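Chain A, query sequence.
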Amino acid sequence: MFTRICQRHSFILFNNRLKQNFIPTQSLGRTIHAAPLDSNARERHHTPLLLMLAGTTVLVFISNVYYELYLAKPTPKTLSATEWKPFILKEKIPRSHDTSLLRFQADLPAAVSDTIPIPSHVWVKDDSMQITRPFTPITYSRDHFDLMVKRYKDGQVSKYLHHLSPGDSVDIRGPIPTFTYTPNIKQNIGMVI
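Chain A, predicted structure.
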């Protein structure tokens, strides 16, 4: 019966060379006709696949660049006494007509935020004028630190800080301890605000 089907539908049996190297040219019912694949046909066969692969690679690269430039949120920084780091202004809370609390986004490990000396300051840099001024943070938390800033008529850095909007970046260095307090070092301590 198999012989009769082969004769009736004219199957072509391939030798080893043709099995490795063929392209179907017509497939109707059970009849398959095949011809050897020449080198030009092989190259044409792979061209669309290579174009798709190259296009996908370019698309992934462009989407990664777009994400990094426009969509990715910068990671919060940790304070450093030796180098300037950009910190993002998270919140600006007005306290009076000329004073605002500026909350900067940070990534302070719990051990660091608990051991920062109280009488320490950070340096804030205004890049447009290359001026730096010290400010004493009033709060160190795990995810932020706060500066209370009063705007002065002639104060260049205080004006610069008051013109910032949430999302803006400021270069800050610190904390830098000005006085190391140890309990019972003095009988009386006076503080000036």
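The helical segments are 2-9, 16-20, 39-71, 110-115, 156-162. The radius of gyration is 36 Å.
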